[in-house]
Design brief:
The chain has no helices and 11 strands. It has 118 residues and is mostly beta strands. The strands form 2 sheets. Strands 2, 4, 5, 6, 9, 10 and 11 form a 7-stranded mixed β-sheet that branches. A 4-stranded antiparallel β-sheet has the order 1-3-8-7, with no helix packed on it. Strand 9 and strand 10 form a beta hairpin.
Length: 118
């Protein structure tokens, strides 16, 4: 099996920064795309950012210029640096990974709460 363990959520004032990390462990041959999604109360889960195995990135328009996604392939870890946080960034943030082990399977982390106060 595979586990995705997220760290780094918390409470921050508007304008502040947080860094999330997500480490994958278990039966892994390779990791294709990794990404972050978020879900605010009463809303659907939405894409925040993704990074492919080769390093190409994709961001939601709402976070472009403020958030940076990166990954360390040697550590099977993806990061999300969040700067200039806004109250509307408040949500549970979920790590996502497409992992290959005799087939490609999608995995989700348990989620980490990010709360931005005004």
């Amino acid at each position: 099996q595979v586990q995705l363990v997220e760290r780094g959520g918390g409470l921050v004032q508007a304008g502040g920064s947080l860094r999330l990390s997500c480490a994958a462990s278990g039966r892994i041959f390779s990791i294709n795309a990794m990404g972050w999604y978020r879900q605010a109360p009463g809303k659907q889960r939405e894409l925040v950012a993704t990074v492919a195995s080769g390093g190409s990135t994709n961001y939601a328009d709402s976070v472009k210029g403020r958030f940076t996604i990166s990954r360390d392939n040697a550590k099977n870890t993806v990061y999300l640096q969040m700067n200039s946080l806004k109250p509307e960034d408040t949500a549970v943030y979920y790590c996502n990974a497409l992992i290959t082990w005799f087939g490609a399977y999608e995995y989700w982390g348990q989620g980490t709460q990010v709360t931005v106060s005004s």
